[in-house]
Amino acid sequence: MKNILLTRIAVSLLAAVALAAPAAAQLAVVNAAGFQANAPVAPGSIASAFGAFAGATFQANDSLPLPTTLGGAQLTIDGAAVPLFFASEGQINFQVPSSLEAGRHQAAVSVNGSEVASGFVDIAEAF
């Protein structure tokens, strides 16, 4: 009886923690030159990610090589950190890796190590 009660308490606590954890916000990625919605970006181009990146601080990069963390924020595509030009609570400008193949890729933004937004980036074929 004691083991059943402890198991129920543990399951209830895990469920409460899972419900209390904030879900990652949506992430929208566009080409930084035109900001056209629902259009793919090209490998090697500059793109902008928009979303709610709570905790990121306003910071522009002023040196080379480009950092992969800026203002406490990091953007990953398929799990790999990408070079950043600018970060703020609502926008991140980054260089699309030239090695990405055409298609849909998973993107995520972490601030101070915690994922705060996720979505997809569509990559166009390079000509």
Mean of pLDDT: 85
What spatial order of strands do you see in the largest sheet? 3-6-7-2-1-9-8-4-5
Uncertain spans, ≥5 residues at pLDDT below 50?
Answer: 4-22
Whole-angstrom Rg: 18 Å
* Count of helical regions: 1
What is the global morphology? globular
Distance between the termini: 68 Å
Task: State the order of secondary-structure elements, H for helix, E for strand.
Answer: HEEEEEEEEE
Query: Which structural class fits the helix and strand makeup?
Result: mainly beta
As a percent range, the share of strand residues is 35-45%
The residue fraction in helices comes out at 10-25%
The total beta strand count reads: 9
Major sheet attributes = 9 strands, mixed
Summarize the structure.
The protein is mainly beta. Helix content is 15%, strand content 39%. The chain is built from one helix and nine strands.
Topology:
Elements: H1 2-20, E1 25-31, E2 46-50, E3 59-60, E4 73-77, E5 80-81, E6 84-87, E7 91-95, E8 103-111, E9 114-123
Parallel strand pairs: 1-9
Antiparallel strand pairs: 1-2, 2-7, 3-6, 4-5, 4-8, 6-7, 8-9
Question: Can you tell me about this structure?
Answer:
The protein is 15% helix and 39% strand. The model is unreliable at 4-22 (pLDDT under 50). The protein is built from one helix and nine strands; from the N terminus they run H-E-E-E-E-E-E-E-E-E. The longest helix has 19 residues, at 2-20. A nine-stranded mixed beta sheet has the order 3-6-7-2-1-9-8-4-5, with no helix packed on it. The chain has one helix spanning 2-20, and strands at 25-31, 46-50, 59-60, 73-77, 80-81, 84-87, 91-95, 103-111, 114-123. Strand 8 and strand 9 form a beta hairpin. It is mainly β and 127 residues long.
